[in-house]
Amino acid sequence: MAGTAVDSPPFYCPIESAIHPQAEEAERRALAWVHRSGLCRGDAERARFAGTRSADFYSRFAPHADLERLWITACWVYWGFAFDDARCDEGPFATDPAAFASMAFSVQRALEVPGLLHCADPYAAALHEIGELFRASAGPVQNRRFHHAHRAWLTGVQWQIGNRATGHMPDLDEYLAMRLHSAGGEPTYAMLEIANGLDVPDREMDSPAVCALTEMAILVAALDNDRHSHAREISRRQTGQNIVSVLMAHHDHSLPQAIDEAIALRDAVLERFLRLRDLITPRASAPLRHYLTDLGHGIRGNIEWGLHVPRYLTRNNPAPAPAPQPRIPAQTAPSHWTDTPRTSQQDPRCLPSIAWWWKDLAF
User: Fold this and answer.
1) What is the pTM of this model?
2) Contact, 323 vs 146, CB < 8 A?
3) What residues contact residue 183 under an 8 Å CB cut-off, 6+ apart?
4) pLDDT at 232
5) What is the structure's pLDDT at 236?
6) Which residues of 149-187 are buried (b: 16+ CB within 10 A; e: fewer)?
7) For a Cys staple, 65 with which of 8, 12, 195, 359, CB 3.0–4.6 Å?
């Protein structure tokens, strides 16, 4: 879908900025692993990996994590961005659902199998190594949760690729359901327990209230990424499935109207997240309180990372020069933020996929 980029309005996000004090060391260790992993073939690819600033990204999600776990979770973020670019958004798998399914679930299996495993696919081999690092750093419950979240992500991408292959533009509710999985938020947030050495009790983690809060954090970040990436997607003709494109196609919005409505819908979800989190935090265990706090850190940190990372600022995504990357500021300018949420024309409680978030949720 053709379009013209417009400047992004400020973000409503009344959550404090935070970043791990050893983010640079986590980046150094994670990039050293990337260089050993076999995924990089030359200086240009190494620079492209570094340009995702994945360690900075996750250092904002888990600002109080153990460094020995933080750098390992950052390895998965580097891997995830590379896999997303090479096999989800572009390349031969990006328009072939059957080929993607076969490849993706062999990769998933490499994550799940413990011990020695020969993988001809370099992405599967690297993910298997990450899985081994996770097994050495966290317990079986945390690893199982991550495996399930990782599988859900690949399933969401499969859905997205199927839409792309058939030329199907999802409606708003369908898009939100798909985006909850395809954005990669599930494995990203599932790693919080691994990075922090947490063990949130099942009765809390699986409660309707905490499941809703996790989904809300995922969707807010996913819609923020849609905003960050829209100009880049326009330049690369990849706007087929984006919240802005969905609103333009199904609600007859102009580009500025679609952006405004996407922001308002996202703000409504964030408002509900903040209210529900405040409601259940006083009754939460210490591990759950830490997890809920870091859900918020992830929302804020994802915005701050997205405002500076070359992934979104470079519209045509040329291979960056193999030079040292400039540091991303710990905080962003006040002009990037607003204290006032927008009002949506679309009542999110009328959207079946997410309406349940506004119900009286058990905890």
Assistant:
1) 0.94
2) no
3) 153, 156, 218, 221, 222, 225
4) 64
5) 56
6) bbbbbbbbbbbbbbbbeeeeebebbbbbbbbbbbbbbbb
7) 195
Give the C-alpha separation, 174 to 185, whole Å. 17
Q: What is the pLDDT of residue 330?
A: 74
The residue with tokens 């958004």 is: 89
Please give the pLDDT value at position 4. Answer: 42
For residue 302 the two structure tokens come to 């994802």
pLDDT of residue 233: 62
Strands (E) across the chain are located at 11-12, 337-338
Q: What residue type is assigned to position 311 of the chain?
A: R
Chain-centre distance for alpha carbon 51: 16
State the alpha helices, DSSP H only, in the chain: 23-36, 43-51, 54-61, 67-83, 97-112, 122-137, 140-166, 172-182, 185-196, 202-205, 208-235, 243-251, 255-280, 286-306, 310-313
Q: Are 292 and 284 in contact (CB under 8 A)?
A: yes
Residue type at position 254: S
Alpha-carbon span 79 to 69, nearest angstrom: 16
pLDDT, averaged per 10 consecutive residues of the chain (363 residues), comes to 57 98 98 95 92 98 98 98 96 96 98 97 98 98 98 98 96 98 98 98 98 98 93 60 95 95 97 98 98 98 95 57 58 88 93 98 95
Backbone Cα Rg of the chain: 19
Nearest residue to 87 via CA among 46, 122, 116, 129: 122
